[in-house]
Amino acid sequence: MRDWLKNVRKERGLTQEEVASSAFINRAFYTQIENGSRNPSFEVAKNIATILGISPSAFYTNEFSEPFQLALRNSPMIIAHCDLELRYTWIFNQHPDFDPENSVGKRDDELAVNEGTLALMALKQEVIRKGKQMQKKICFPLTDGVHCYYVFAEPLVDSNSEIVGVVTASMDITEFTPDEEE
């Protein structure tokens, strides 16, 4: 099941028929894509992604090359894309407190509200506003304690070099950070 896809579609107030029609596919095929029994071609994924405001790579998160998955699966790295409204359009390897299926289409402050999420959102907004790469250490209270991340953020641009969002790569540096008040 692609519950995340169904959730994003519903959050956008669209029916399966509306998405299918706009993506130039029939509703039955879209339904199969949404329930996970069929995978879209990249072109179809791109059309659906454009309609829903997500990254086409969201359809292939579980199908990335094995070396990529192996390199990141047990690493302290989180990689994500957000649109101009800071809604996740794709996320990989996030902390176990968060379900990637339910994160796509949501903002950080819709997933959790704390100093860390607010600082992360401010960093993303500044990257979009200034149009340049930035980085910052940000700490988040999570169920297994406070985790500090070194967050690299840069503008996400389209083929016309227009900023359409922000890309982040966050490395958990908790074990390398002395206990201190943030």
Helix content: 25-40%
How many strand elements? 5
Shape: globular
- Give the CATH architecture of the largest domain: 2-Layer Sandwich
In CATH, the homologous superfamily of the largest domain goes by the name: PAS domain
Strand order of the largest sheet: 2-1-5-4-3
Beta-strand residue percentage: 15-25%
How many angstroms does the end-to-end distance come to? 40 Å
Secondary-structure element pattern, one letter each: HHHHHEEHHHEEE
Structural class: alpha+beta
CATH class of the largest domain reads Alpha Beta
The major beta sheet can be summarized as: 5 strands, antiparallel
Number of domains: 2
- CATH T-level topology of the largest domain: Beta-Lactamase
Ranges with pLDDT <50 over ≥5 residues? none
Instruction: Count every helix, treating DSSP H or I runs of 4 or more residues as helices.
Output: 8
Which value, in Å, is the CA radius of gyration? 17 Å
Organism: Alkalihalobacterium chitinilyticum
InterPro entries: Cro/C1-type_HTH, Lambda_DNA-bd_dom_sf, PAS-like_dom_sf, PAS_4, TransReg_Diox_bact_type
Protein name: Helix-turn-helix domain-containing protein
Domain HTH cro/C1-type: 5-59
Description:
The protein has 182 residues and is an alpha+beta fold. The protein has two domains: 3-61, 434 Repressor (Amino-terminal Domain) (Orthogonal Bundle); 71-176, 2-Layer Sandwich (Beta-Lactamase). Helix content is 37%, strand content 24%. Strands 2-1-5-4-3 form a five-stranded antiparallel beta sheet, with helices on one face. Helix 2 crosses helix 3 (27-35).
